[in-house]
Amino acid sequence: MAAVTPLLSTRGLSKSFGGLRAVHAVDFDLPEGQIRALIGPNGAGKTTFVSLLCGRITADEGNVHFAGRDVTALPAHRRIQAGMAYTFQITSVFPRLSLHENIALAARRRLGHDREGVRAAVGHALDMVGLAGRANQLAGDLSYGHQRLVEIAMGLAQAPRLLILDEPTQGLSDSEISEFNALIRSIASETTVLLIEHNMQVVMELAEFITVLNFGEVLAEGEPEAIRRNPAVQEAYLGTAHA
Amino acid sequence: MDFGPYLFLASLEGAVTAAVLALTAAGLSLVFGIMRVVNVAHGEFFMLGAVIAWWVASLAGGHPAVGFVLALVIAPLIVAAIAALADFLVLKRVQYDPERTIVATIGLLYIIQQTVLMTYGPEARPVEAPFNHRIYFPWFGYSTYKFFVIGAAIALLLGLWLVMTRTRLGIVLRATQLDRETALAFAIPVERVYALTFGLGAGLAALGAVLVVPIQQAHYLMGGDPLLLSFIVVIIGGLGSLAGTVVAAVLIGMSDGIISVFFSPTLAKIIATLAVALVLVFRPQGLFGKAAR
Amino acid sequence: MTPTAKAFLLHGGLVLALVAGHFILPEYHQGNLARIMALAVYAMGYNVLFGYSGLLSLGHAMFFSAGMYGMGLSVQHLGFGAGPAFVCGILAGVVLATAVGVLALRTTGVAFMIVTLMFSQAVFLTILYFTPWTRGDEGFVIQPVDRMLFGIDLSDATYRYFAALVLFAIVMLATSRLIQAPFGRVLIAIRENEERTRMLGYDVYRHKLGAVILSGTISAVSGAAYGLLFGYVGASFASVQYSILPLLWVLLGGAGTIVGPFLGTLFMFYLIDLTSSITTAYMLLAGAALVLLTLFAPEGLAGSFRRRLAPWLP
């Protein structure tokens, strides 16, 4: 594996807000095709870290390489164009637009004026999240759980090389969560997935590899079983309020 | 006249402009600082102050000082009441949404201005100064009333500063400015604070107008310039900063007085409006504000 | 019927009704309608930015007057004919809109409103400052001899009516195509949720800049056309009032709808026309309308119609 260049890697990535070191000197490698979970106690810097990856905030130090090039200096939209897709932790859809248009916006950036192609991509993405019958509803009229699925469908419709999901199962019911797990497994052959997740069941079921952040630094990395048994990880979780 | 005395005269005129401007802009700054809304009708509250001052003074009769003193008390109160009413009827109902508030206050601007046109008429009318002695410098005489304007403005601004820093009301206002939600949690009646702030802001503009109306006549279109200049001052001084506003008012007032002696007033205004736009574009925290984050 | 077909019928029907208007209406109202159509083009230009992109400008008079003076000054001082002068007006609008867009789009929200207001005020004052060339407040007349376009005399009431109608129809068609195109769809997305749009990989700044340039250019087209059709160029068209009016028209008619700008212009024009025969303080009505719309009908006429009866309305 060492010979293969990872899809995404960071070296010495750091970000402070005021005096607070939100992310500090993180070295991170994500090989192509993996489902990676990023976990850690509340305030460990997970969301800050992925925001640095996709360019929503700029790093103080360090660099981000994606798909073979240094993207550290690129603005967010250029990184997305390079093949990242990001779903928000707090649902962020276009509430006054139809589901179809929400997804079409995601697909159109890559497909442009190809109307048929966009229509097919929208149908496919809605199918995958099980919202096919609702294409003409306004996104704002959906339940919270369904809006999260719309968000994921928007990620899928971009056909990204890397899909970053920030707490995707928050607010989903148990049955929706198992559908979500199946969905992620089904796309894993085409897409690398980076998953921030609090729900340990989802993490253990999906992740092939886990990175644990604590106080903005990498505390441990390894396969799910190794992480589960790691005493430092247990302490980090037990030492704070369990999420 | 030689250059020196000329500059001296220009500085005196500038100081008068700066004094009135500081009062007017302080009102705008207060409203923006506490309520986070831009009041486009601010200039019309200034104009209302001047028109009501004329009305009070002409009803009072007797010695000009009687009418003037009455106007100085009554006009700001009436204007403040009108503004508080506008806050209650309009601004509160658009939930102080910044963009909708601007559109609504543009509407208020025309309502006030055109109502004055219909009632007071298109004439410009003077209010007699309460006293009008002249001090004679070696080169020219100068009205003592204008010195009074400068002194009164300084006194009023000091008063405002004392209210903001030393009284319970000031604490309540500043608490609301810092954080609306927390203020609500501490049982501060935010709605009433907003109405009061809007009234106080308009009242300050009216005060400035009453002071200036013996020098400059009352006219229904007189609100445009104070609005523009107050915008300039508040933006250059840093949005919502009272101290910055006063410093900027002195700077702009003085330079306006001096520049318009040497340049055409239109050119001076072009430069000023462009300067404001560019300050907002490149230094939105104002020239004197600290960079935010 | 598909939404597209309904929209086509509605817009086509409006154009046909306006054609019929020429044969049915008394001359006085024809003159008014010609003005309303030319001004509705201005409102449609404003709507591209405000209604579809969610950017509230308080300075569109600068674009309207850039078109008007670009046209008028090139007739007056360069001896251009109507056609080249019209192009000059449009170019003036493109250049100004690009420059203003690049600067003003560094700001957002309230700051954007104030920056556009200030730039527009600077343009207005500049027109006054160069009074020897622009004749300032007084303005100047474009002689009928300079208003011949492709052999058509635009000072003739009938030709004028149809010239305004053709322009109106073209711009209405163009804006409705624009919002169906991917570019327009992204503008709407930016209006609805800017951060989400950026995180879908769209260059938000470039789209907004495109919207400012398009909107400014359409406004300039309207200004140049208005000057040519009615033969007068004056500084009052650059004043704050002419920045507020398109906002009022679009708010009244319905922001983010295709027919809204026309409806708003039509209603406000006649309201002011009726009021100004009673009092000089006719802008009182505009003020009251702004306050009432903000309070009770932020969607405007076409917007309420869309919400209650016709969700297909573009």
TrEMBL record, chain A:
<protein>
    <submittedName>
        <fullName>ABC transporter ATP-binding protein</fullName>
    </submittedName>
</protein>
<dbReference type="GO" id="GO:0005524">
    <property type="term" value="F:ATP binding"/>
</dbReference>
<dbReference type="InterPro" id="IPR027417">
    <property type="entry name" value="P-loop_NTPase"/>
</dbReference>
<dbReference type="GO" id="GO:0005886">
    <property type="term" value="C:plasma membrane"/>
</dbReference>
<feature type="domain" description="ABC transporter">
    <location>
        <begin position="8"/>
        <end position="240"/>
    </location>
</feature>
<dbReference type="Pfam" id="PF12399">
    <property type="entry name" value="BCA_ABC_TP_C"/>
</dbReference>
<keyword id="KW-0813">Transport</keyword>
<dbReference type="GO" id="GO:0016887">
    <property type="term" value="F:ATP hydrolysis activity"/>
</dbReference>
<dbReference type="InterPro" id="IPR032823">
    <property type="entry name" value="BCA_ABC_TP_C"/>
</dbReference>
<keyword id="KW-0067">ATP-binding</keyword>
<dbReference type="Pfam" id="PF00005">
    <property type="entry name" value="ABC_tran"/>
</dbReference>
<dbReference type="InterPro" id="IPR003439">
    <property type="entry name" value="ABC_transporter-like_ATP-bd"/>
</dbReference>
<dbReference type="InterPro" id="IPR003593">
    <property type="entry name" value="AAA+_ATPase"/>
</dbReference>
<keyword id="KW-0547">Nucleotide-binding</keyword>
<dbReference type="InterPro" id="IPR051120">
    <property type="entry name" value="ABC_AA/LPS_Transport"/>
</dbReference>
Automatic annotation (TrEMBL), chain B:
<protein>
    <submittedName>
        <fullName>Branched-chain amino acid ABC transporter permease</fullName>
    </submittedName>
</protein>
<dbReference type="Pfam" id="PF02653">
    <property type="entry name" value="BPD_transp_2"/>
</dbReference>
<keyword id="KW-0813">Transport</keyword>
<dbReference type="GO" id="GO:0006865">
    <property type="term" value="P:amino acid transport"/>
</dbReference>
<keyword id="KW-0812">Transmembrane</keyword>
<dbReference type="GO" id="GO:0005886">
    <property type="term" value="C:plasma membrane"/>
</dbReference>
<feature type="transmembrane region" description="Helical">
    <location>
        <begin position="227"/>
        <end position="252"/>
    </location>
</feature>
<dbReference type="InterPro" id="IPR001851">
    <property type="entry name" value="ABC_transp_permease"/>
</dbReference>
<comment type="similarity">
    <text>Belongs to the binding-protein-dependent transport system permease family. LivHM subfamily.</text>
</comment>
<feature type="transmembrane region" description="Helical">
    <location>
        <begin position="102"/>
        <end position="122"/>
    </location>
</feature>
<keyword id="KW-1133">Transmembrane helix</keyword>
<feature type="transmembrane region" description="Helical">
    <location>
        <begin position="45"/>
        <end position="62"/>
    </location>
</feature>
<feature type="transmembrane region" description="Helical">
    <location>
        <begin position="193"/>
        <end position="215"/>
    </location>
</feature>
<dbReference type="InterPro" id="IPR052157">
    <property type="entry name" value="BCAA_transport_permease"/>
</dbReference>
<keyword id="KW-0472">Membrane</keyword>
From TrEMBL, chain C:
<protein>
    <submittedName>
        <fullName>Branched-chain amino acid ABC transporter permease</fullName>
    </submittedName>
</protein>
<feature type="transmembrane region" description="Helical">
    <location>
        <begin position="110"/>
        <end position="130"/>
    </location>
</feature>
<feature type="transmembrane region" description="Helical">
    <location>
        <begin position="209"/>
        <end position="235"/>
    </location>
</feature>
<keyword id="KW-0472">Membrane</keyword>
<keyword id="KW-1133">Transmembrane helix</keyword>
<dbReference type="InterPro" id="IPR001851">
    <property type="entry name" value="ABC_transp_permease"/>
</dbReference>
<keyword id="KW-1003">Cell membrane</keyword>
<dbReference type="Pfam" id="PF02653">
    <property type="entry name" value="BPD_transp_2"/>
</dbReference>
<feature type="transmembrane region" description="Helical">
    <location>
        <begin position="279"/>
        <end position="297"/>
    </location>
</feature>
<feature type="transmembrane region" description="Helical">
    <location>
        <begin position="78"/>
        <end position="103"/>
    </location>
</feature>
<keyword id="KW-0812">Transmembrane</keyword>
<feature type="transmembrane region" description="Helical">
    <location>
        <begin position="161"/>
        <end position="188"/>
    </location>
</feature>
<feature type="transmembrane region" description="Helical">
    <location>
        <begin position="247"/>
        <end position="272"/>
    </location>
</feature>
<dbReference type="GO" id="GO:0015658">
    <property type="term" value="F:branched-chain amino acid transmembrane transporter activity"/>
</dbReference>
<dbReference type="InterPro" id="IPR043428">
    <property type="entry name" value="LivM-like"/>
</dbReference>
